[in-house]
Amino acid sequence: MGSLANLGDLFVIIFYLTVAAGIFAAVVLFSRSRRKQKEQLDRIEAKLNDLAGK
After folding, report:
1. Which DSSP letter does residue 54 get?
2. Structure pTM?
3. Which residue did the predictor score with more confidence, 27 or 4?
4. What whole-number distance in Å separates Cα of residue 4 and Cα of residue 17?
């Protein structure tokens, strides 16, 4: 019975670690996509400024 309880604890720990890793991965991917989006907007803005300047 004791080993069964330890197995349950192990599953709970693995579950929480998986959830934490998923949240961390989502935050990292979100921040990276935001940075790429900002770089793309900056490039578009620069092109528009070049076109408007000419």
Report:
1. -
2. 0.60
3. 27
4. 20
